[in-house]
Structures are given as C-alpha cells and as structure tokens.
Design goal:
CATH class: Alpha Beta
Largest sheet: 8 strands, parallel, barrel
CATH architecture: Alpha-Beta Barrel
Strand content: 15-25%
Strand order of the largest sheet: 1-2-3-4-9-10-11-12
Helix content: 25-40%
Distance between the termini: 41 Å
CATH topology: TIM Barrel
Radius of gyration: 20 Å
Order of helices and strands: EHEHEHEHEEEEEHEHEHEHH
Length: 317
C-alpha cells in the first residue's frame, strides 16, 4: 500500500448516546468544531440525530461555516433527477462550492410506502437506476458553458443562450429534455458519495463515485484492494465510532489502518468527544505529516484533491 498518503476526515453529526434529540445549535457547533479540525465535510444522514431534514439543515450549516464541505443525501428511489440537481446546485452556489451529494444504502431510507412509490425490485436494479440518475444530473450541470453568463449592463445581455444546451436524455428510467435552469455551479459537478453496503453498491462506487462510504472495516479493505487496480478510484472512508477511553493513542492506530488497508480516511462519529478528537487526534496526525494544517482550497473537490478540469460528458455539442 502507498505510505504517507494524506488522511481524510468527515463528520457524522450525531450522538447516539444522547438522551434527547440534538438541537440545531448543537449540530452547528459540531460542524464548526469539525471545521476547526480541518475536516473535509459534514455528512448529513437521511435523518440527522432523529430530527433534521438534510436539505433544510445544510443551508443552515452553510451560513455558519466557511470552508467545510456539506454532503446531502439523495433518494434516487423517490425523487426526480431535475429537482435533485436544482437542490444540490443551489447548495453549491450558496456555499461557494462546498456541496456534495450522496446515495444512501437502502436500509437508511424511508419505506417506499411513505412516498406512494413501489419498492425497488432488486438491489442490482436500484444501482442501474442510480447510474442513469447520475448521468442525468451531470448532463444537466454540464448544460451551461462556463462562459454562458455575460452580465453586460451596457448591452443588456445577461446570458448567451447559444451556450446553454438541452440534454435530450431518453433512458430506461428517465426522460429529461433539459436544459438546466441554473448557471453552472462553482464545482461544475459536486462530488458523488455512495454508501457501500453490499457488492452491487461496491461495484457502483468503483465505477461512478468520488467517495465510497463503508461501514465495515473488512469491506473497506476489500474495496480498497479492488480500487488499487483501477486507473480511477473513489476515496474510501470507513466509519469510525470514537471510543473516548482510547482517544489519546488513536492517531497511531488510524495511520496504521490507512497504511495497512489502503483506505483514505474515516467518517468520524465522535458525539460528545468531538472537541477532544479535534484537540488531540488531529494535532497528532498533523505532527506525523498525515493531515493538513489548513485547507488548501475552497471547494469540496479541493479538499478531496479531486480533478477540477472535467470533460463534457453526455452533453450534445
């Protein structure tokens, strides 16, 4: 495995041991603490702390933070791609390029009956639908050229319509003419995160995701082994429930874990121990040369060291 690779950290803002649901101020405080610790992003679960709807929560976090990424879960089973594209793009504009989106595992979602929609027939079928969902979103986001907005007050010309194109998508699951009705977002394509819980999700993550989120260490190691053989692979993050009793020696353990299994980092579930994690583990990782001392860029793609020059895929010329 590659040694000395930088370690990535995400925050899962929840405290399962709490006697009462978290308040908004408590979630904001956790996000700001994670930002002080130079975490890549806050990962909003489909239901954060048993209370908050993520598409409402993340804008509140965006105005109370300045650098940390904001990852919104997306139901590919119950929502239309166009609406999802607008929601994520709006968050990306609102946060100056800090948005990401995630496809949760099936057991993290609300039952289909609550949406009046039939259940997905198979796990494989769900990820086939997800691949088309992703293509539609990226085609919509790509349908505006970067030079489309002129905003010339003297001529009265705001946008060059010839640089905004329909996408004309006709697929097995979706028919979307386009074009998008928002300008290109700061990142062009906010990073895609996939919760891996099973082999079909793992195959999809290796083919399509920018970040793979994995619960089980053994599954993360197996995914990293497969990813190492690919020219392009997602960042692989494994869940890390933090044991407050072992936090003083945790940095050494995390470094060995990354170096042994070839993963890229961790989704930190620290609850009430987050301040101590940031004040103890993060400095130890920094002294070892395995963690940033400050943010190197502005966008979530910057934090993840993902390419910022993207090809126009799926957009008619």
């Amino acid at each position: 495995m590659t040694q000395d690779r930088p370690i990535h950290l995400y925050l899962y803002p929840d405290d399962p041991s709490a006697a009462v649901p978290a308040t908004l101020s408590a979630v904001i405080a956790q996000a700001r603490t994670a930002e002080r610790g130079r975490f890549d992003a806050v990962l909003a679960a489909p239901v954060v702390a048993g209370l908050f709807e993520p598409s409402t929560l993340l804008p509140a976090l965006a105005v109370r933070t300045t650098r940390i990424g904001l990852v919104a879960p997306t139901s590919i089973d119950h929502l239309a791609p166009y609406n999802v594209a607008r929601r994520i793009s709006t968050l990306d504009h609102f946060s100056h390029g800090r948005a990401g989106w995630s496809i949760p595992a099936t057991d993290e979602l609300e039952p289909s009956q609550l949406h009046g929609a039939p259940p997905v027939r198979s796990e494989e079928g769900r990820w086939e639908r997800a691949a088309e969902f992703r293509r539609v979103l990226e085609s919509l986001w790509d349908s505006w050229d970067s030079e489309a907005i002129v905003a010339d007050k003297e001529s009265g010309l705001y946008v060059r319509s010839e640089l905004i194109r329909p996408i004309g998508h006709v697929g097995e699951h979706f028919r979307v003419a386009g074009p998008f009705n928002l300008p290109r977002s700061p990142q062009r394509r906010p990073p895609l995160h996939v919760r891996v819980a099973g082999r079909p999700a793992g195959h999809f993550a290796l083919d399509h995701a920018d970040v793979a989120l994995v619960r089980e260490p053994a599954q993360a190691a197996e995914l990293a082994t497969r990813a190492a053989r690919l020219p392009r692979a997602p960042r692989i993050l494994v869940d890390l429930p933090v044991d407050a009793a072992r936090i003083d020696r945790l940095a050494d353990h995390l470094i060995r874990w990354v170096d042994t299994d070839g993963i890229d980092g961790f989704t930190v579930r620290a609850g009430g121990s987050l301040e101590r994690f940031v004040d103890t583990v993060v400095p130890d990782l920094q002294r070892a040369g395995r963690y940033r001392s400050d943010y190197d860029g502005v966008t979530l793609r910057d934090h993840l060291a993902l390419p910022t020059h993207l090809e126009n895929v799926g957009v008619p010329a």
